[in-house]
Amino acid sequence: MTSVIHLPKMHRDAELRAASYDETDNTIEVIWTTGATGRRVTWMEGEFDEELVVDQRSVRLDRLNSGAPFLDTHQRWGLDAVIGSVVPGTARVEGGRGFCRVMLSKADGAADRVARIVEGTVKNISVGYRIWAVEKKERDGAVPLHRVIDWEPWEISAVPVPFDAGAQIRSGDQDGLFTCRVDRALADVNATRRIRMAMQQRQYQLVG
After folding, report:
1. What are phi and psi of 32, to 5 degrees?
2. What is the distance, to the nearest Å, from the Cα of residue 30 to the centroid of all Cα atoms in its chain?
3. Are 34 and 97 in contact (CB under 8 A)?
4. Is 42 in contact with 134 (CB distance < 8 Å)?
5. Residue 58 · residue 150 · CB < 8 Å
6. Nearest one of 64, 68, 71, 66 to 92, comparing CA atoms
7. Among candidate residues 114, 107, 101, 80, the one with its CA nearest the CA of residue 25
8. Using one digit for the tens of pLDDT, what is the confidence trace for 15-73?
9. How many CA atoms lie within 13 A of 84 on its CB side?
10. Whole-model pTM above 0.90?
């Protein structure tokens, strides 16, 4: 069973490799996803686990490979927040992880933040992404599992503290809501139908 819902842009923790800094071209390597399962809570869905599927079919790399921005803590209201950009053509998926190289800014206004990244005192990275399709599965004795089977990284940010898994959806600074296809497992759909039929039968018995 397939339905359509609306979701905001999401964030997920990633990793910055300070030891990979190349002074000759002012670039550094970023692991922007490991596909780890994380706990989320939203007012629409309640509590659930989100798993990013990381393979060639599931991740849309066009934005990253076109030179997506490297931002200071997901700020999007001014150019001062841009402290670098993804080197075009370097975003790739290998072994269930996403990699790319980021060219750091040489602008005076970004010098302090870039210096902290290069020296390794700022190493936390968060990727902002849009979800295009998710596969939902109910689990006995556990919160539902949402497998994100089609998603698109939009930007990568340096952050002081990684986002908590339950607080990655923020209402005050999102880019709006985007449509997302939801695929439900057939077993879950059938189970829901059986519950509804049982409830209807009990209602008829009470009325009779």
Report:
1. -95, -5
2. 15
3. yes
4. no
5. yes
6. 64
7. 101
8. 566 678 899 999 999 888 888 788 888 888 889 999 999 999 999 999 999 999 999 99
9. 28
10. no
Beta bridge partners of 16: 30
Helices (H), 20-144: 62-65, 111-119
Taking a C-beta distance cutoff of 8 angstroms, is the pair 37, 49 a contact?
A: yes
| Distance (Å, whole) CA 166 – CA 109 | 33
100: how many CB neighbours lie within 10 A of its CB?
26
Read off the pLDDT of residues 114-152 as tens digits, 9 standing for 90 and up: 999 998 888 888 889 999 999 999 999 999 999 999 999
Specify the 3-state DSSP secondary structure of 205.
Answer: helix
CB atoms within 10 A of CB 86: 26
C-alpha–C-alpha distance, residues 208 and 188, integer Å: 30
- Residue 129: strand pairing partners: 10, 153
Strands 97-104 and 92-94: antiparallel
Q: Is 158 exposed, middle or buried (0-12, 13-18, 19+ CB in 10 A)?
A: buried
Residue 149 is encoded by which pair of tokens? 């089977």
Euclidean distance between CA atoms 84 and 89, whole angstroms? 15
Q: Which two tokens stand for residue 50?
A: 């989100």
The partner residues of 97 in beta bridges, in order of sequence, read 94
Two structure tokens written together for 20: 């990979």
